[in-house]
Amino acid sequence: IELEVALRAALADDQLYVAYQPIVRLETGVPVGAEALVRWLHPERGLIPPMTFIPIAEDAGLIGSIGTWVRKEALRQLGVWRSEGIVGDDFYLSINVSPRQLSDPELPLIVSGEMLRYGVPAQCVALEMTESVMVDGSSVTSRVLFELRELGVKLLVDDFGTGFSALGYLRRFPVTGVKIDRSFVTGLGVNVEDDEIVRAVVAMSHALGLSVIAEGVETPLQREALHAVGVVNGQGWLWGAAVPAPEFAERWRRAA
Ligand code: G
Ligand code: G
Ligand code: MN
Ligand code: NA
């Protein structure tokens, strides 16, 4: 409850900011996009991780406001980077959306308005959702996903492989790609079972026409193992952690 009160104040007082982590082509290390990750810098407690405050925001009914703020801020920033020539048409921003946001029937209209306003084409936007959205989602959520996809936005399944669910939703929903959870990437090149899981995920994803992004890539060994099984894109500390917009632009200005 205490954190909930503080979180309401954080939204009002500019304590939230968005950090950007590059998503790169494994072969070259050149960014193809970035993931927008919300950060809360509390005036006394310092940085509070999203793993702590996102669940609180969900329970307190604040995830809608926070999600809206993050999405607008990220799309605004992408518009600025595009107009300054820091990134090009082939660079996309990937934004996390919670189940609650995807149950709002107005979301596709709102997102399309924001893209127009900030001069961002739909193919430069990805939305990341956990598979629970599709497993538990209502018919409204289903319609929202189809409408977003119709706009041209990419739809990615985050933390892929951790949900213990049947995979039928990959065919029923207009998903365009999966992000392999970092728990499977950690053991690559060392643990044969992780190698086999990732190999199978990649084969299935490609058979379904889905893109694959490996998360949490930290070592050259992991990068090589991913490349060997046909993964094209990755994200992780090997290339860079999430950083505030000015640092991201400084670091990647000429590459992206
Ligand atoms: O990189 P980091 O440890 O900050 O992210 C932890 C998790 O918090 C991410 O995997 C993501 O699922 C979640 N998260 C980060 N930013 C957002 C956001 O803007 N909205 C939602 N719903 N979740 C986010
Ligand atoms: O959306 P998602 O929950 O996957 O957010 C990614 C989370 O993983 C963020 O919290 C981010 O800070 C974290 N992360 C990103 N790259 C790495 C990495 O290379 N190693 C580890 N351990 N964590 C990472
Ligand atoms: Mn994510
Ligand atoms: Na993830």
Features of this protein?
alpha/beta; binds manganese (II) ion; EAL domain-containing protein; binds sodium ion; 10 strands; binds guanosine-5'-monophosphate; 256 residues; globular
Write the SSE topology.
Elements: H1 2-12, E1 16-25, E2 31-42, E3 46-48, H2 50-59, H3 63-83, E4 92-96, H4 99-102, H5 107-118, E5 125-130, H6 132-136, H7 139-151, E6 154-160, H8 169-172, E7 177-180, H9 182-185, H10 192-207, E8 211-214, H11 220-228, E9 233-235, E10 243-244, H12 245-252
Parallel strand pairs: 2-4, 4-5, 5-6, 6-7, 7-8, 8-9
Antiparallel strand pairs: 1-2, 1-9, 1-10, 2-3
Helix pairs in contact: 3-5, 5-7
Domain EAL: 1-256
Protein name: EAL domain-containing protein
Keywords: Membrane, Transmembrane, Transmembrane helix
Detailed description of the structure:
Residues 1-256 form the EAL domain. This is EAL domain-containing protein. It comes from Actinoplanes aureus. The chain is of the alpha/beta class. It has a single domain (2-252), classed as Alpha-Beta Barrel (TIM Barrel), CATH 3.20.20. It has helices spanning 2-12, 50-59, 63-83, 99-102, 107-118, 132-136, 139-151, 169-172, 182-185, 192-207, 220-228, 245-252, and strands at 16-25, 31-42, 46-48, 92-96, 125-130, 154-160, 177-180, 211-214, 233-235, 243-244. It has an eight-stranded mixed barrel, surrounded by five helices. Helix 3 runs parallel beside helix 5 and helix 5 (107-118) runs parallel beside helix 7. Bound molecules: guanosine-5'-monophosphate (2 copies), manganese (II) ion and sodium ion (NA). Residues 21, 37, 96, 158-159, 182, 215-218, 236-237, 242 line the site of one guanosine-5'-monophosphate.
